[in-house]
Amino acid sequence: MKLPFVDAHIHLWDLEKLRYDWLSAPFDDSGVNGSTEAIAQTYLPSHYRADATGFDVRGTVHVDAGARADQALNETQWLQGLSDAEALPTALVAFAGLNDPNVEALLEAHSHHKSVRGIRHILNWHPDSFFSYTPANLLDDPQWQAGYAKLAKHNLSFDLQIYANQMAQAAELAAKHPDIPVMLNHAGMPVKDGADHMDRWEAGMKLLAAQPHVWAKISGMGFVERNWTTASIRPLVLKVIEIFGTDRVMFASDVPTDKLFSDYATIINAFDDITSDFSDDERRDMFGRNANRAYRLNLDL
Fold it and tell me: How would you classify the pairing of strands 214-218 and 182-184?
């Protein structure tokens, strides 16, 4: 693919410096490219550049890699150092537990780092505990809602990672806070939790898309289908674009997590192939300019 690309969702980590808990999420360890342990130690800018060889990557957005709550600011400080020294990542989405009554101090500290653009607090909750990342639905928690409301004060967006069963509630919350941009992660994660799972996912996606400040990232296909192919994900990718429009969709690699199920070139080339019938202008939006706008990267694209 020759289009300028802004990779809107990557992870960097170094377990010698920071402790990450992403492996505690419900995760099938039978990925086609090996086990989670194979990618659990380090993933640094040099590793990313090696994976992205041959692609015109103009910018990258690191999204929190699951640092422990007590190391969230350390993660931001370490990543800001990488950004300053290596220009990668371009922007940071940091972690903050929004249900912490004292979260505002952390939000303020994060916001003092020039590359920080937003916050992610993973919310995936499901009535079937097999799928849940959290013991309760934090969208129900008044304390969490109060923490979310503080994001606008610090000019922070929110990376929203949820399931279809939470989308109506998330759309209501977004409607109450039109000044907080929302980036939906991994195409809404339509996990196979019932015969009508795609119908429920589509209905929820339409509710979110009705809020003009909600964007959709198409990434993380391995979460939906471990052995995906370009043909198998084509309907999903096109449906997200149909619902959100080419002006609010961003493509991303989600490496190194998605390397369990594929490789960088396969991921990006699949998105390239699926969108080959769109106009050059639409494709430039989806592969770079939308992420540039949404995350305020100020890149010349």
Answer: parallel
